[in-house]
Design brief:
The longest helix is centred in the N-terminal third of the chain and has 27 residues, at 2-28. The chain has 206 residues and is of the alpha+beta class. The protein has helices at residues 2-28, 76-83, 176-185, and strands spanning 37-50, 61-66, 70-75, 92-95, 101-105, 108-112, 127-129, 140-142, 155-159, 168-175, 195-200.
């Protein structure tokens, strides 16, 4: 009888320990260690998107030399948007009326199956371009002040941009007209609109 009583106490004690550890683990899931999460204020946020040629009807065509394809004509406004329009820099991607993607980089025009970011990796809906001297590649980035669900989004720092320097993050918003609208919604460049940014370095950067 005494042995059964002692065993019962041990079982209860072990159960309490397991419950405490489980509870603590669940509470800590969303609270990364202080030395892994880095947050700071004063960040400029802009957006970039992939224009789709069928959304444009300027009535004017521009002929380009595309690597490995030769000369191909595209809507002129579509090309201006890729190269020096709303995206704000001379390198970018667009989806052509043929279904493939046209990119401008290294001084030339190129064909690809997807819009490409740094290291020729396809851009994802949660990609952001960063200054890698401040945020390591592949870091998880959050910008709580962005509107709607974007404030809770975990972005991946897997791109760079010729105009992204210092405390500046460029958010990729996707393809087409809706992405263009969202590009403006995520832009906070005025001094009184600068944002708080947090990032967690990937394991290989620690």
């Amino acid at each position: 009888m005494r042995g059964s009583y002692s065993a019962a106490i041990v079982i209860i004690f072990v159960g309490l320990v397991i419950a405490e550890v489980t509870s603590r683990s669940k509470a800590e899931e969303n609270v990364p260690p202080a030395d892994e999460m880095h947050c700071s204020e004063g960040w400029r946020i802009t957006g970039y998107f992939t224009p789709v040629e069928t959304d444009y009807a300027s009535g004017e065509m521009t002929e380009l030399e595309v690597e490995r394809l030769g000369k191909v004509s595209f809507d002129a406004e579509f090309i201006r948007t890729i190269f020096d329009g709303e995206q704000g820099f001379g390198e970018g991607w667009g989806k052509t009326r043929f279904g493939w993607y046209l990119g401008n980089y290294h001084g030339g025009w190129h064909k690809a199956d997807a819009p490409l970011g740094a290291n020729n990796s396809p851009l994802k809906p949660n990609s952001v371009a960063v200054d890698r001297t401040l945020i390591p590649v592949d870091s998880i980035v959050t910008i709580p002040g962005l509107p709607g669900d974007l404030g809770d989004t975990k972005f991946i720092a897997d791109d760079v941009g010729v105009s992204v320097h210092g405390k500046h993050i460029d958010v990729y918003t996707g393809e087409g007209k809706n992405a263009r609208r969202e590009m403006y919604e995520v832009t906070f460049e005025d001094d009184d609109d600068l944002q708080r940014v947090c990032f967690e370095s990937p394991p290989h950067a620690k």
